[in-house]
Amino acid sequence: MEIVQLLLFLILFPLIPAVFMLLVGKDTERNWIVKLSALGIGAVLVYLLVTGSNKGTLYYAIGSEPIGLVMFAIEMAIAVFILYMGLRYRNSLVVALIVLQTMIMIAFEAMYAGKVEVQYNLFIDQFSIIMALIIGIIGSLICVYALGYMKHFHEHHPSCLDRRNQFFCILFVFIAAMFGLVFSNNIVWVYFFWEITTLSSFLLIGYTKTDEAIANSFTALWMNLIGGVAFSVAILSLATLGGGMMGLDQLLASGKVIALIPAALIGFAGLTKAAQLPFSSWLVGAMVAPTPVSALLHSSTMVKAGVYIIVRLAPIFQGTFSGYALAFVGAITFLLASGIAISQTNAKRVLAYSTIANLGLVVACAGIGTYEAIWAAILLIIFHAISKSLLFMAVGTAEHHIFSRDIENMHGLINRMPRVAAMMVIGIAGMFLAPFGMLISKWVAIRAFIDAPLGFVFVIILAFGSAITVFFWAKWMGKIISVTPDSENIEGKVDRSEWMTLVSLAGLSIITTFIFPLISTFLVEPFLLRNYGATAQLGQYNIIIMIMMLILLVVLPLSVLLPHKKHKHVMPYMGGRQTTPDMRFSGSLGIRRQMELSNYYLENIFGEKKLKPLGTYLCAAIIVIMLAGAFATGAFL
Amino acid sequence: MAYLKKSPWIIHYDASSCNGCDIEILACLTPMYDVERFGIVNTGNPKHADIFVVTGTVNEQNREIILNIYNQMPNPKAVVAVGICATSAGVFRECYNVAGGIDMLIPVDVYVPGCAARPESIIDGIVTAWGILEEKRKTMNTAPAAADAAAEPGPVVQEPAGGAQ
Amino acid sequence: MISIVWAIVFILLAPVAGGLVAGIDRRITARMQGRYGPPILQPFYDVGKLFEKEHIVVNETQIFYVICYFIFMVFTGALFFSGADLLLTIFSLTLAQIFLVLGAYVTYSPYSHIGAERELIQIMAYEPMVILAAVGMFVVTKSFNVSDIASSTIPVVLFIPGIFLGFLYVLTIKLRKSPFDISTSHHAHQEIVKGITTEFSGPSLGLIEVAHWYETIFLLGFVYLFFGFNPVLAIIAITVVYLLEILIDNTNARVKWQLALKSSWAIAATFGVVNLGVLYLTGV
C-alpha cells in the first residue's frame, strides 16, 4: 500500500464506525464494531510505523479544489450549529466570536481562496507518526474503555439521558479529526480539523446536559473560539502575505521574520487549545464529562493538538522575542498549575492541573525551540499521553466502585480494589518517578534549557516545578497504598473492556520506558536531524543505569511473592490509647472517636484562589507582549 | 553478640506520678549524669524502645495505656519500675483511685524504690535491666514462643478491674 | 568514565564511614552540650542491637518499602561514586526517599502519616536547590558527570559561591538536623513521636539507619564536588561543613514546616537566580 493511502485511510476510516455508532441499537453490536475498529486502526498504525518511519518526510498532493469546497461547507455548517447553540443558551460571547470567525473565513474564501497555492495538502514525518500512534492507540483504547464505562455510567446516573450512540459517534469523529490535523500540510486544512476538535469537545463536555456540564462546555467553547479567531486571522494574514505560505512546509521555509505574525497567532490558538493559563479553566471544567472524555481530551486529542501545532512551528519561534514570551507562558503555567494541583482533593482536578502543567512544560520547550528542547517536548507528549490516560481511566473505574473521585476517599485502595489500585500506582509512578518516561523527559528538558540562551531562568522554574510535582503525586500514592482497617475488597468484577484498556496502558507505560532508546533513535532523532540539523541523545551509560533502575522497580515488587516468615503484628502507635482494630479510640472525656488521616493540601500557600489569578494576569500580560512582539518584529523587519 | 547491653533505648511513661521521679529521670539525661555515655537514649516510642521505665501507679485511666505501650515494644524488652509508687503504690496503695504498683499489670524486671528515686539508683536500675535483656534475648532465640507467652500479660489483667471501684 | 570499582568501594565502606561520622557527630554534640557523650562506635552498637530485636510490624508491606528505600539509597550513592550523571543521581535519591515516605504511609498511623507529609514537604523544600547545584556545576565544568566534576581543575566553588551557600542551607534538611528536623529526628520530639520512622522497629529501623549512613556519605561526597580541584581542601571543607551542621543543630530550635519550606525556597530562588544569572552574564 502507498503511504498516502494509509493516511487517507486513518483520516476517513474512523468515520465509518462513527456512522455505524449512530445506527446501532444493541450493546453487543456496538462492542463489536468499536473493538474491530480499534483493532483496524491499530493494525494500520503498526503497518505505518513499519513502512513509514524510515522514509523521512513525505508530501502528497491531493486535489484541493473540491475538497476545499467541501471543507468550507462543513465549516459553515459547524458555524451555523454553534451560532444556534449560542443563541439557544443565550451565550452572547460565543455568538460574537463565531460570527467574527465566520466572517473572517468567508472573507478569506471569497478574496483569497482561489489564489492560494498549496502544492501538498498531506504530509507525514516521524513526528506525525508519533502523534498518530498516540491518537490511534490511546484513542482507540479509550473508546474500548468507554464501552464498559458508559454502560455503568448510565446505570449509576439514571437521570442522564442515554445518548451513547451520539457519544461514540463523536469519539470517532474526534479521532478522525485528530488524524487529519497531524497529517495536514495545508494550514487551511489544519484549521478545518482544528474546528472539528473544538466542536467535538464542546459536545462531549456537555454530554450529561446538567447545568454545570452545559456551563462548562460553553466555557470550553468560547475559549477555544478565541483560539479559532486567532487561527483564522493567521490564515487571513498568510493569504495577504502573498499566499505562498499556506503550507506548513512553505511557512517553515519562508524565514522567520515574515512568518512570525501568523505563527504567533497560531501559537496563541495553540495556547487556548492546550489550556495554558489564562485559558486553563476550560480543561478543569471539562472533567464534569464522563471519564473517557476527560481521558481523551487530556491525553491523546484536543490539548495535544494545541501543543502539536506549537511544536511544529517551533523553528519559527526559536530565538525570537515572541518565542521566549511563549516559553514563559508555558513555564509559568507549569509552575503555577503544579502548585494548584497540591491544593486539590478531587482526583480529576489534580489530573487536570497536572495536564495543564505538563503541557506548559511542552510549550516552554517549544518556545525555546532548540533541537534538544524539541526532543524533550516530543518525549513529554508521548509519555504524558500514556500515563495520564491510564490515570484518568483508573480513577474513573475506581469512581464506579467507591462512588467518589475524592483522593481522601481513596485511602486503602490497594486492599479495597487491588488491581485497579496497582494500575493507578503505575500511572502515578509514571508521572513523576525515575526512571519512568515523564522524569526522563524532565531531565532532558533541564539539559535543553541549560544549553539555550537565557535558559537558566527556565531551569530554575523547572527545578521548583518538579519539586512541587513530587509532593502532590507522592501524597496521592501514599493514600492509595496505605493499608487501612476498612479494607474489604469491593473490586468485584471490573468490566472486561475497562480492564483490558487499563492493563494495556499500564503495560505501555512500562514498555515505552524500556524501549525509550529505540523510540528516540528511530522516531525522534531522525525528525530532529531533518528539521534542526542536529540531534540529542542520552549517553549509553545513562540508558543502562535507567534500565537497571526500571528492572529493579519491576523485580522488587515480585519479592512479595517469595515465602517469608510472618512477623508479629501490632496496632499503629496511638499514644498508648486503647484502639479497636477499626481505629476507634476513646478521646478526651471518654468520647469515642474514629481515627482519620487526611493529606496536606497547603491551601494557604498553593490554593487555587491565590495562584490562579496570579497566573491569569501574568500569562495574559505575557501573551499580549508575545503578540505585540511578533507584530512589531513582523512590521518593522 | 551482646549489642543490647551497649544500646538500651528507653521509653519513659509517667503513670500519674507526682512528677518527682520523672524529674529525676530527666536529670539522668542532663550533663550531670549523662546516660548517653552508656548508649541510653530516651526514644519516646515503644516500637523503638528496649526498656520501659514507668513511674507512678496504675489506675483506671492509665491501665490500658501501660498495657498498650508494653505490648507494642518488640522483644526482648524489660520493665523498670521507678519510685515507690511504681513498685508498690507506696502511700497511695489504699486510695480509692489507685489499683496498685505496675507489677499488677505487666511483669516488672527491676524495682527502683525511692520517693523520689535518686538518679544514681535509676541509672543502676537500668544497668541491671541490661543483663535481664540479654538473658531474655537468649531465651527468645532458643524458644521464641515460650518467651512470647511469658512476656505477654495474661488475660486477667486486661479485663476492667472491678476491685478498684 | 563509569568506575565500578568506586561503586563497590562505596557500597562496602560507606556504612563504616557513615557510622563513624554519626558516632563522632553524637560525641561532638554531647561535648557542645557539656556532656561526655557515647562511645564513637555507638551507632554500630545501636544498629547491631536493632538487628537482634524482634521484627514487629503494623502490616507486612511496610518491610517491602524499607527494603526498596535501602536498595535505592545504596544505588544512589553507588551511582554517585561511580561517577555517573549527577542529575540522574538526584532523581534516584528522590526515588529512594519516596519509598521511605510510602513505607510510612502504608502503616496508616497518625504519627507516621504526619512524618510522611512533612518528609514530602522537606523533599519539596530541598529539591530545587539540589537540582540548581547540579546545574551550577554543569555551567562551570560543562559536564553533568560526577567523575568529570570531581576531577575538574576549575575551582567550582569560586564560580558558584551562592549555590554553595544555598546547598549548605538545604544540607541541614537532608542531614535531619535541627532546625529542619521536622519529619523525624534523633532527639526526642514528643509531638510527632518519631515521625516517619515511628512504626518501624528492629531490623527495619536498623536498615533505615544504615541507609542514613549511606546518605550522609553521599551528601558529603556532594560537598566534595564543590572543591574537587583540590582534594586536601575538599576534605577540610567537608570537615568544616559537617562541624558547622553540628553547631547549627545544637544552637537552633526546630522551626515550623512553613518556615522551612519558604526559607529554603527563598534561598534557592535568590542564590540560584543571582548566581546562575551572574555566570550567564559573565559568559562562563
Between the first and last Cα atoms of chain B, what is the distance in angstroms? 48 Å
Q: Give me the CATH architecture of chain B, please.
A: 3-Layer(aba) Sandwich
H and E string of chain B? EHEEHEHEHHH
| Tally of separate helices of chain B | 6
Percent of sequence in beta strands of chain B: 5-15%
Mean pLDDT of chain B: 82
Strand order of the largest sheet of chain B: 2-1-3-4-5
Task: Please give the count of helices of chain C.
Answer: 11
Supply the helix-strand structural class of chain B. alpha/beta
Shape of chain B: globular
Give the CATH level 1 class of chain B. Alpha Beta
Largest sheet of chain C: none
Helix content of chain B: 25-40%
Please give the number of β-strands of chain C. 1
Helix content of chain C: over 70%
Strand content bin of chain C = under 5%
Question: Which parts of chain C are unreliable, with pLDDT below 50 for 5 consecutive residues or more?
Answer: none
Explain the layout of strands and helices:
The complex is a heterotrimer of chains A (637), B (165) and C (284).
Chain A: H1 3-12, H2 15-23, H3 27-52, E1 58-60, H4 64-88, H5 92-111, E2 122-124, H6 126-156, H7 164-183, H8 187-205, H9 211-240, H10 248-253, H11 256-273, H12 281-285, H13 291-300, H14 303-312, H15 314-317, H16 321-342, H17 347-368, H18 371-402, H19 413-416, H20 418-432, H21 437-451, H22 455-481, H23 496-514, H24 516-532, H25 540-555, E3 568-569, E4 584-586, E5 592-594, H26 603-606, H27 608-636
Antiparallel strand pairs in A: 1-2, 4-5
Chain B: E1 9-15, H1 20-29, E2 41-42, E3 51-56, H2 63-71, E4 78-82, H3 84-88, E5 110-112, H4 119-142, H5 144-151, H6 155-158
Parallel strand pairs in B: 1-2, 1-3, 3-4, 4-5
Helix pairs in contact in B: 1-4, 4-5
Chain C: H1 4-32, H2 42-52, E1 56-57, H3 61-81, H4 86-106, H5 110-141, H6 146-151, H7 156-159, H8 161-174, H9 202-226, H10 231-251, H11 257-281
Helix pairs in contact in C: 1-3, 1-9, 1-10, 2-9, 3-4, 3-9, 4-5, 5-8, 5-11, 8-11, 9-10
